[in-house]
Amino acid sequence: MSDALDNRIEPGGAEAESSSNLAPPILEVSDLHVRYGANVALEGASLTVSRGQICGLVGMNGSGKSTLFKSITNSVSYQKGSIKVAGIDANQARKQRLIGYVAQNEEIDWDFPVNVNQVVMMGRYGFMGPTRRPKSADVVAVQAALEMVELQDLQQRQIGALSGGQKKRVFIARAIAQGAPLLLLDEPFAGVDKYSETNIVDLLRKISAKGTTVVVSTHDLASLEKLCDEVVLLYRRVVYQGDPAGALDPQNLAKAFGLNPAASGGGQ
């Protein structure tokens, strides 16, 4: 990744690294309650994610994973609790472009004549002003992001002509180009083959190594140990947070998937 993006992700270079222990966690969620009418989506969810980690967010459908992401990005309102990103309120963090988000399904017309470079450049719109004319820093950031996801040779290709795995990498590149220190990915392995999944895992490890914190929601238990530094199991609240091996313990999985361990043979 270029120096331009390195400086955005790791302000201050070596000095920032030496003082990282003094910095607040990149993500702090405290006692979060979210309801949709009478439906309880999250009830007292609390978690903390340290800087530079890859955190897996695991739970069954309806466990609150998407609601948590939407709360962090201010797409839904919560009734109680607090969310801080890099020590400030999440809404302010979003305005300061400190949060990158890759949705599970992008709302895009795949036949629209827009190429890979143009899609990734959308990650820089917040820096351009109303004219949306790229400056040299925007061009550098986009090229660095394309190189990171290894799609620089396809940047003039129409977005709909790509494979499923390549499309995922384009939208990850768009988030990288934004330069946010916190990256949220909703089910990045959905709809891709095993080869593409391996490429995405390797890519996320590279992003993390550059200093970006990555939070990934996933159903893929098999990928947890090779991808994640820590795992959060969610069932409307956090039922486990810790290393991947502990997350795969049958007792913890039973809690996350709403099972009775005794009645289900240990949750297996």
Written account of the structure:
The chain has 268 residues and is α/β, with parallel strands linked by helices. The protein has one domain: 3-Layer(aba) Sandwich (Rossmann fold), CATH 3.40.50. It has twelve helices and ten strands. The chain has helices at residues 3-9, 14-18, 65-72, 90-95, 116-121, 125-128, 136-148, 164-178, 194-209, 224-227, 244-247, 250-256; strands at 27-36, 39-49, 54-58, 80-85, 88-89, 99-102, 182-186, 213-217, 230-234, 238-242. It has a six-stranded mixed beta sheet with strand order 6-7-8-3-9-10, with helices on both faces. Helix 7 (136-148) crosses helix 8 and helix 8 packs parallel to helix 9 (194-209). The radius of gyration is 19 Å and the shape is globular. It starts with a helix and ends in a 12-residue tail after the last helix.
* Spatial arrangement of strands, main beta sheet: 6-7-8-3-9-10
Shape: globular
Task: Tell me what the CATH architecture is.
Answer: 3-Layer(aba) Sandwich
How many E strands? 10
Which structural class is indicated by helix and strand composition? alpha/beta
Compute the number of helices.
12
Tally of separate domains:
1
- Name of the CATH homologous superfamily: P-loop containing nucleotide triphosphate hydrolases
- Kindly state the mean pLDDT as a whole number? 88
Family: Belongs to the ABC transporter superfamily.
GO molecular function: ATP binding; ATP hydrolysis activity
Domain ABC transporter: 27-261
Keywords: ATP-binding, Nucleotide-binding, Transport
